[in-house]
User: What shape does this take?
Amino acid sequence: MLQYQIIPVTPFQQNCTLFWCDETKQAAVVDPGGNPELIINAIEQKGLTLTKVLLTHAHIDHAGATKAISSHYGVSIEGPHKEDQFWIDLIPEQKARFGFEDAEHFVTDRWLNQGDNVTFGNITLEVYFCPGHTPGHVVFFHRESKLAQVGDVLFKGSIGRTDFPRGDYNTLINSIKNNLFLLGDDVRFIPGHGPMSTFGEEKRSNPFVGVNAR
Ligand SMILES: [Zn+2]
Ligand SMILES: [Zn+2]
Assistant: This one.
């Protein structure tokens, strides 16, 4: 069975998520934006074996500690989609500007696409390609427990920003309505920032993608 713990990181409290298989104790960490020591502590406390780092997108606040974690454990990096390469390449120049001094550039071991699977222990996560916030954003979905990690695509009551380079509003709306929302109303999701919600709740009440959206 899939277990998870949300670990808010950096002064901005992005949702980094530690996922693990409770049968094998194998784990994967999604979006290690910073504070690698906090993430390592959580892994050690639970007696888990980290097997990979997964990325929804390559913004520095979600990927800044990718190199630190993957090097510490000697594990591979999977994700995001290859269209986010330019964001990875911007990390060195952005770290001073945004106050993420420890962030490091990294090389991903596997780009992800719609329809791919990522695995750890007995767990399989499905990959959905959801561009718009960044051009290479992906979402991870665990079908058995109806749980998704959506990064900065969708939030409780809001959606991801599209005013960054190569962001696109219509592309983002399309990703949410025609990809994420098809997974089911009862799917719970962990966003990149803030509290969890369900796709059904956002369909009902989200001012950007809900039934009463402008
Ligand atoms: Zn972002
Ligand atoms: Zn973010």
